């Protein structure tokens, strides 16, 4: 098609168009060890094709648990975007889930706009932005978009904005509450997030949690002159195996 000069007539997504007059913040997640919920949140915008026209979807997720904290669908018949629906999604997430230490986005004009960044800065939240052209800096949101589109959006030609909201809402509820993730020890994002939030409420800060609680590990090597192996009366030798994160007695 490229050689023949053929091109789709559908509107182009154009979801990360920068605004040169807006300030850009540095990327803060490089080499950062993210080990608890509400440490880093991330947001992104994606393009939702519909039977007539198209929409833009913004979502905010907790980086560690993958939980979708808030989302908004904006209906547009052109390729222009406004900041207001991103601010609405941000305020909803902050109201329901507290706040993160760092908030990461791309360099799109909606996220560099003062209306958006001022909400974060007034709360003392550090603003982080992906490097130019580096979509993998926000990889977990990109994975969400891929799952959403191939498992829901591309299978349904939404006739209206209301139909799109219902379909996407059902899918995100399934993603949060029913779909287990191997990286979370086969827990759902919602149960993993809620469990660690409750744990953090009882302590100043929880120790680094083990995501996959089903992984078994051998105890550490015994000290010189000692052993964690003990021969029982029948003469056989047994080795105790502990759950990851459980200290040997």
Tags for this model:
alpha/beta; disordered C terminus; 28% helix; 249 residues; 2 domains; globular; 7 strands; 5-stranded mixed beta sheet; 16% strand; two-stranded antiparallel sheet; Nucleotidyltransferase, domain 5; single chain
How would you sum up this structure, described in words?
It is a single chain. This protein is of the alpha/beta class and 249 residues long. It has six helices and seven strands, in the order βββαβααβαααββ. It has two domains: 40-199, Ribonuclease H-like superfamily/Ribonuclease H (Nucleotidyltransferase, domain 5, 2-Layer Sandwich); 215-249, no CATH class. It has helices at 84-97, 109-112, 114-122, 139-151, 161-177, 189-201, and strands at residues 40-49, 54-62, 68-76, 102-105, 126-129, 216-217, 242-243. A five-stranded mixed β-sheet has the order 3-2-1-4-5, sandwiched between helices. It has a two-stranded antiparallel sheet with strand order 6-7. Residues 212-222 and 226-249 have low confidence and may be disordered.
Brief digest:
With 249 residues, this protein is of the alpha/beta class.
Write the layout of secondary structure elements.
Layout: E1 40-49, E2 54-62, E3 68-76, H1 84-97, E4 102-105, H2 109-112, H3 114-122, E5 126-129, H4 139-151, H5 161-177, H6 189-201, E6 216-217, E7 242-243
Parallel strand pairs: 1-4, 4-5
Antiparallel strand pairs: 1-2, 2-3, 6-7
